[in-house]
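Bit of a strange request maybe. I'm writing a small parser for structure token strings and I need a real example to test against, not something I typed by hand. Could someone generate the tokens for this chain?
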Amino acid sequence: MGGSDVHVRMLAAPINPSDINMIQGNYGLLPKLPAVGGNEGVGQVVAVGSRVTGLKPGDWVIPASAGLGTWRTEAVFSEEALVGIPSDIPLQSAATLSVNPCTAYRMLVDFEQLRPGDSVIQNASNSGVGQAVIQIAAALGLRTINVVRNRPDIQKLTDRLKGLGAEHVITEEELRRPEIKNLLKDVPEPRLALDCVGGKSSTELLRHLAPGGTMVTYGGMAKQPVTASVSLLIFKDVRLRGFWMSQWKKNHSPDEFKRLILTLCDLIRRGQLTAPTCTEVPLQDYQRALGAAMEPFVSSKQILTM
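Reply from user aminoacidic:
Good idea to test on real output. This should exercise your parser:
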């Protein structure tokens, strides 16, 4: 082990859509082969090299950036590839900290100057980011309009998201109906829309955006382009932006990322941010976990435990 190396025993690592995209070869960042899957997770430091100053045995660590390969039992990483985190938060929260809650927080804070009482509309509200958006928005005093796909257990899902702090939970079909205006008349027009789907769903979000508002696209689950009508662009002057957490990290210092992580850890400690619903699966059953992660309408994130 070199002087700046850190020996880590992995504790838990989730399966995110971006992990699957990476394996399929259609993601914005592809590691050199041979590679280990998994961009997120939490591990515990076993030993450190003589030049390591920021970490010690027993500390919990998460990846500093994507492509680390977290689906393994242990590994030796360089110190700068890791970020130390407090070990007094729940394991599932730690394992799912560095991608979805970070994405949710940055999108809520970086694009529009929102104040308590303002509203945000989002699709894919049951996703890991969606659940984090609901909770972080509530902690910031923002109101959320949450769009989900219709499903047999829609009432159960609605109750669960409202339990996280969602104000309105509506289906894609309900969003298209004219009477939705009455349902949403008690909420200020959202100046921020968060789009993880693309296609028709993103077009509907844009229709409900306040004049001069911003739609931020961070995923493309429908595998269809974002379509904005000319009249919305001209007469409502809406803005279309994209967000990718990996790019944010490239544009900001490791200290800024660490500050973001500590802000989220504070929310977790206060009970204002919980992990998404998770199913823990032993690493040796990874095939079952990957199969489950690719099923539609799965409301539980698969987490590999080592």
